[in-house]
Amino acid sequence: LKQVFHKDKTFRPKRKIEPGTQRFELHKRAQASLNSGVDLKAAVQLPSGEDQNDWVAVHVVDFFNRINLIYGTICEFCTERTCPVMSGGPKYEYWWQDDLKYKKPTALPAPQYMNLLMDWIEMQINNEDIFPTSVGKCKEE
Question: What is the superkingdom listed in this entry's lineage (predicted)?
Answer without folding.
Answer: Eukaryota
